[in-house]
Amino acid sequence: MTRTTIADVAKAAGVSVSTVSRALRGLDRVNPETRERVEKEANRLHFSFSKSASSLASGKTMRIAVLLPSEISSWFNSHAFEGIYEVMSKADYDVVPYIVWTQEDLDRFFQNLPGNRNVDAIIEASFDFDEAKKRVLGELTIPVVGMNAPSTHGLDAGVAIDDAAAMSAIVRFLKSLGHTLAYIGQPVNASPFICSDIVREKGFLDAAKECGYGDDDIIIVPSLTHMDVQNEQDIYSGIVAQLLSAPKQPTGICVSVDAAAVPLLKELRRMGWRVPQDVSVVGFDDDPSASIVDMTTMHQNPTEIGRIAARKTLALLAGETLEEPFSVISTSLVLRSTTERVH
To answer: Which of 10, 210, 263, 302 lies at a CB distance of 3.0 to 4.6 Å from 80, suitable for a disulfide?
Structure first.
């Protein structure tokens, strides 16, 4: 079976090859009835332009770069990518993930970026770029859109949750139950590029002070890493040991991510702490593990964040002016069985 060519479509539609090209690429100067006839014949003959041919004709690559820290399989990254792909694929864009594990990876991406027009736009997730990289982004002629980025500098648009406001809601909730507080950051080796843990810890401390907590009422557990201990259980055993040895043991623990809160919850119970009778635990994200262990947590929706980022990107690519370039989407506290009032 021979491959259908543009000439076959032109012959079937009774028009020139150039008319078929203009009609299928959506260009002006094509009669609507002619365009409809060409599209009908192209569909009947199963003809479509190759991406490379379309790119040469339109000046677009039809590719979007998605810059992700550390791994595409993490809960936030995978769901945000899914949201981006859902929107972009319907607009005939290819979505290309760029995974950054090390500082060298990130430096290489930026070194090649200004002179390498192999994408039409960039969507980045949660990166806290230095000033030099923000300057590079700001000088690009292609749209750059952020997801949960700590700064708008260098970005054309973005969508994010308000980490500080979410932490304030958690602190006020724990205070209403009468708890003394502890905050635990992500205690395993996290990406050095993700800024959410720093923002959440600051939001927690600021909210605690606003709620009248003194320094003696708040415990911040220094994060342990795989460099400090032999295995994951040792990490969480070390955290529980720090809580047990604190001058004033906390009754309400906030953990920056569910991925750390769930194993901590398991270790607390293994060490004899009753949850929630002895201590309440609140996570952050509402990933699937939180519902499995019935844990109170702060809900966010990374899939919707990805969709919104993609829609903003498409609008910028179409030359539109965004009414709201930078959007903040809401989070919500999901109450489950790991929290209760102090007895």
So the answer is: 302
Domain limits, CATH 3.40.50.2300, in the chain? 63-161+303-330, 163-300
CA angle 270, 275, 230 (to 5 degrees): 35
The contacts found for 39-46 with CB under 8 angstroms, 24 or more apart, are 40/13, 41/9, 41/12, 41/13, 42/9, 44/12, 45/4, 45/8, 45/9, 45/12, 46/4
Q: What does the pLDDT look like over 320-332, one tens digit per residue?
A: 999 999 999 999 9
Q: Which fold has domain 6-49?
A: 434 Repressor (Amino-terminal Domain) (1.10.260)
> How, if at all, do strands 94-100 and 63-69 pair?
parallel
Stretch(es) of the chain classified as CATH 1.10.260.40? 6-49
Question: Which pLDDT tens digit goes with each residue over 304-319?
Answer: 999 999 999 999 999 9
Residue linked to tokens 């864009």: 93
User: Could you give the CA distance from residue 241 to residue 265 in angstroms, rounded to a whole number?
Assistant: 13
Q: Which CATH superfamily is domain 63-161+303-330 in?
A: Response regulator (3.40.50.2300)
